[in-house]
């Protein structure tokens, strides 16, 4: 039975800006998404049943049809029923290295890996844009996870354009393993608290009157100006998450006092990341923050920016 081992990298948000409300309940977003080297490993193998069998080594990750990787396999089965009947089912094994429910798109990356893996096992020959169209049906971060690197996402987050790849910076990720933030809660709270800062157009789309933060960051990325990138990273969801989770706010403040390029919460949190110009600065800032906060629930990862999306490690 043919099998593939794939790497599914985590992402951080260099920018998450909510620029409008939509009548369908979603938000108009501008996001700058960035892959990092920290990655889950996905082993996917053809099986002689017609089923999807999924195992994950992390106790908090579901192994049923609520797992995003399972849903990705189901989407492929439903989209290509004859190929599915011919090749049979799949066995998916997920080795989690990316913290779960952390704002790092762990589940989205796993789903992207399953789309790529089944495309290979079934020899479908789908191109990256074709895989991304399928990915968009599963969730707004998943098309990015297919291609990775540095990209700007607009609309609900599903319209993607690549930016100049950034790879020269190191990243410290820090997350309390006893704190999780609900993404719907973060967006709903933002909508309630900042409703007044929108104006409505004729179609009912509400737009922000406030300053848009993406332009200076995009300029800094175009110039690969690490110091300026560190200054221009931005996340609107911090406004609702940090007041509600003072430990996360204190963690960000502790990083801000270090010799780093910049610090920010990723996505809806609660992971805080610090951008650093070298590995030694990443290690030094991690050690300083660890010794200042001294909480066994606070976990750290040191990684690097990456230009890669889903990668094939090996095939059999
Ligand atoms: P995003 O940044 O895309 O919002 P996240 O990093 O905040 O994602 P995930 O790690 O993807 O969050 O997990 C969110 C929830 O989804 C978890 O609570 C988990 O139960 C569920 N989940 C479903 N499939 C997966 C998966 N393959 N890996 C991790 N979590 C998954």
From TrEMBL:
<feature type="domain" description="GHMP kinase C-terminal">
    <location>
        <begin position="217"/>
        <end position="291"/>
    </location>
</feature>
<keyword id="KW-0418">Kinase</keyword>
<dbReference type="Pfam" id="PF00288">
    <property type="entry name" value="GHMP_kinases_N"/>
</dbReference>
<comment type="pathway">
    <text>Isoprenoid biosynthesis; isopentenyl diphosphate biosynthesis via DXP pathway; isopentenyl diphosphate from 1-deoxy-D-xylulose 5-phosphate: step 3/6.</text>
</comment>
<comment type="function">
    <text>Catalyzes the phosphorylation of the position 2 hydroxy group of 4-diphosphocytidyl-2C-methyl-D-erythritol.</text>
</comment>
<feature type="domain" description="GHMP kinase N-terminal">
    <location>
        <begin position="67"/>
        <end position="149"/>
    </location>
</feature>
<keyword id="KW-0414">Isoprene biosynthesis</keyword>
<keyword id="KW-0067">ATP-binding</keyword>
<dbReference type="InterPro" id="IPR013750">
    <property type="entry name" value="GHMP_kinase_C_dom"/>
</dbReference>
<feature type="active site">
    <location>
        <position position="141"/>
    </location>
</feature>
<dbReference type="GO" id="GO:0050515">
    <property type="term" value="F:4-(cytidine 5'-diphospho)-2-C-methyl-D-erythritol kinase activity"/>
</dbReference>
<dbReference type="InterPro" id="IPR036554">
    <property type="entry name" value="GHMP_kinase_C_sf"/>
</dbReference>
<feature type="binding site">
    <location>
        <begin position="99"/>
        <end position="109"/>
    </location>
    <ligand>
        <name>ATP</name>
    </ligand>
</feature>
<keyword id="KW-0808">Transferase</keyword>
<dbReference type="Pfam" id="PF08544">
    <property type="entry name" value="GHMP_kinases_C"/>
</dbReference>
<protein>
    <recommendedName>
        <fullName>4-diphosphocytidyl-2-C-methyl-D-erythritol kinase</fullName>
        <ecNumber>2.7.1.148</ecNumber>
    </recommendedName>
</protein>
<comment type="similarity">
    <text>Belongs to the GHMP kinase family. IspE subfamily.</text>
</comment>
<dbReference type="GO" id="GO:0005524">
    <property type="term" value="F:ATP binding"/>
</dbReference>
<dbReference type="GO" id="GO:0016114">
    <property type="term" value="P:terpenoid biosynthetic process"/>
</dbReference>
<keyword id="KW-0547">Nucleotide-binding</keyword>
<feature type="active site">
    <location>
        <position position="11"/>
    </location>
</feature>
<dbReference type="GO" id="GO:0019288">
    <property type="term" value="P:isopentenyl diphosphate biosynthetic process, methylerythritol 4-phosphate pathway"/>
</dbReference>
<dbReference type="InterPro" id="IPR014721">
    <property type="entry name" value="Ribsml_uS5_D2-typ_fold_subgr"/>
</dbReference>
<dbReference type="InterPro" id="IPR006204">
    <property type="entry name" value="GHMP_kinase_N_dom"/>
</dbReference>
<dbReference type="InterPro" id="IPR004424">
    <property type="entry name" value="IspE"/>
</dbReference>
<dbReference type="InterPro" id="IPR020568">
    <property type="entry name" value="Ribosomal_Su5_D2-typ_SF"/>
</dbReference>
């Amino acid at each position: 039975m043919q099998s593939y081992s794939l790497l599914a990298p985590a992402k951080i948000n260099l920018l998450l800006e909510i620029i409008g409300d939509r009548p369908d309940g979603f938000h108009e977003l501008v996001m700058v998404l960035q892959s990092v080297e920290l990655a889950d490993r996905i082993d996917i193998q053809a099986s002689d049943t017609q089923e999807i069998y999924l195992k994950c080594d992390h106790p908090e990750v579901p192994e049923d049809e609520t797992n995003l990787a399972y849903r990705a396999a189901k989407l492929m089965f439903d989209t290509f029923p004859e190929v599915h009947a011919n090749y049979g089912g799949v066995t998916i094994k997920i080795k989690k290295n990316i913290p779960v429910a952390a704002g790092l798109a762990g589940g989205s990356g796993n789903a992207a890996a399953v789309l790529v893996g089944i495309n290979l096992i079934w020899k479908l020959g789908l191109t990256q844009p074709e895989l991304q169209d399928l990915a968009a049906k599963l969730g707004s971060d998943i098309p990015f996870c297919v291609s990775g690197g540095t990209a700007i996402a607009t609309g609900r987050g599903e319209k993607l354009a690549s930016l100049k790849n950034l790879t020269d910076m190191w990243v410290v990720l820090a997350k309390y393993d006893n704190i999780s933030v609900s993404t719907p809660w973060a967006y709903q709270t933002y909508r309630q608290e900042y409703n007044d800062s929108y104006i409505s157009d004729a179609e009912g789309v509400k737009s922000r009157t406030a300053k848009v933060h993406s332009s200076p960051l995009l300029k800094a990325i175009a110039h690969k100006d690490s110091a300026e990138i560190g200054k221009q990273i931005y996340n609107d969801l911090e406004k609702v998450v940090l007041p509600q989770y003072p430990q996360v706010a204190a963690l960000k403040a502790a990083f801000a006092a270090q010799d780093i390029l910049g610090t920010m919460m990723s996505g809806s949190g609660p992971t805080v990341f610090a951008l650093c110009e070298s590995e030694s600065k990443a290690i030094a800032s991690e050690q300083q923050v660890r010794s200042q906060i001294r909480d066994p629930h606070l976990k750290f990862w040191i990684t690097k920016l990456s230009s890669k999306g889903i990668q094939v490690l090996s095939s059999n």
